[in-house]
């Protein structure tokens, strides 16, 4: 029961007693202690040799022998003493000096393989106490045979004489009943008065030691009293242990107490598995913030395919730590989790947890804009729900109260909506089930429940399978903005309060009248009104962009040009109007660019988007090489994009935009931050796109850039077009006339005659600058003014000693500044218009950062 071999002992306290000798004989020789070596081997799988060894005394060191040869030892003080606990020093076991307990007693190896010590004539108490530290855990008990009962005060003759005298006293009143009582009492006292007895010694921490060695004593007495010639190996008394059945409450409490450590294990698993799914949203948030996700959608990726691919990849990543957890359980051989019936349930719990928790994290990618913040928040939520839910329900099971039990049952059903709880509670239920089965197996009953049954982890697995499907569907619905339908918000039109410019009105009539049907891009009454604003951010824009044209869109911050770009690229919904690209509506199909993944190289970017845009696989490498060569990225093509300078990132964005030969390219301040050489290089690329017959929509703060690239442009003020036409047309219509610069000769130069000449010959002229020999005038624009200026200065050049003069138109910068003065919005309003989140479409907690210039492409 307690392992083999063991050490036992006996003592013959009545060596002169024949009956005692017979009992001792059965203990020392066959069949020995108990019933193991009886005929027929009644206890299988336990060794029993044919005969034991001879008696021997183990040798000891001579110094130990000298102690007992030189000392004055007696039965009361048979060996060196031991030191026990003192007020200053507390010890668990006696601290014994060498030789404590005396010299080793004679001993032999029994046929039961146990070691039998002969303690006859020894102070047994002294020996057992002082040698416990060395042999106590294998010495579970022994017997003393033939001891004298010190409590016996009367002999049998004295008992008979006493009862005889008692009968004489009560003889007048004695009847049959009284006679029988006295006779039974006499027999009882005679038996109680037995002087020779068998004393059983047992180790009280071996719970079954007392019953076992009591059985040994009974077997010895039985065999010692058998008739002569009887084989003692054929007789024995076997003992069976039948504990009292525990109540259901006691069994449940025992199982819960056993599973307390397993609760800690489940909490550790929940803790570890809470970090993994939270990390899956990091890249999703980054892709949404830098518009890479939007770019993929408009490059041909179906939103459902996008999320399905992310889910498949995340599950592959999840399987790795899942396998590590299973291997750890296998290494520690936790029977509650890795036994053959329990291992499939453990694997299913971990896999289904990944299936359900991964899509549950996805909606957070629409809310957060900082990946690290999302990771911390989601991890804390996972830990809070998983740990607190599992611990709370487990603690409530420990409380023996019907109301608490009912509440606990309800809580466990409600918390099944969380995968974290399903995993933690499933692990606890498996441990509890194994503990109950182990308890009942000790009583010979099989109470093990199938771990995959509904009452065990079956309901948890079912709940997690539903959760995964539901949350993935919710993610797809959020992506399609099923829960956030766009609202058309009415606003007060500003363009209706003022007379529209004739060129803008003419373009509106052309678009409405069908004259722009052949244009690549056609915008018709495009309007955007943000919530809680009285005026529209974009007010009924109408324009058509034909092939091979670069259309410039100018305006200060807050004019509405960025909002217009966002609507055209599908970033935000429109409040009214339409926009078409080759006859197709554009706000949900036109991509937004500048979505660069810092971990990919430039070449990998181009290959990725070439595949997404349908370039045949055999042509992908050629197309990527073309983009690298076209934009001058050969030196950097195999380096990660995160190491690129701002100018090279613009080049890479341009190359991505040109992949697939899009008919219309949107450029939002593409050269900002570039050096002059790189800027000129990008201009050449854009001009080559225009020569190929494609259209470009451009915004820029550089008037030089607009004059170099734009064939037509419009200036936006307060969300509406204030002018529209070619650059020369805008200068002619909205410029401040001509600028005349005159340089006068002579020493000192005679400037007064020139000033009088200009004042008389050009009414309305304004002197802008006056230096040593240079005058600069602003002349008003009139019909034929340019010819008149040249004729007058040529005629009087010699008389006025004019060395040279120049006539130029007003610059585009001056035209832009004149219109910019009409922008009434404050700086804060400007930021709101350009960067505000449209509350009709975006999630309420979504944060949108300040947008830098972007490269966009259809």
TrEMBL record:
Matches recorded under CDD domains: ABC_subfamily_A
Domain ABC transporter as annotated: residue spans: 521-743
Keyword Membrane listed: yes
Keywords of the record: ATP-binding, Membrane, Nucleotide-binding, Transmembrane, Transmembrane helix
InterPro entries (UniProt xref): AAA+_ATPase, ABC2_TM, ABC_transporter-like_ATP-bd, ABCA, P-loop_NTPase, R2_ABCA1-4-like
Spans through the membrane: 263-285, 305-331, 343-362, 374-396
GO MF entries: ABC-type transporter activity; ATP binding; ATP hydrolysis activity; lipid transporter activity
Protein name: ABC transporter domain-containing protein
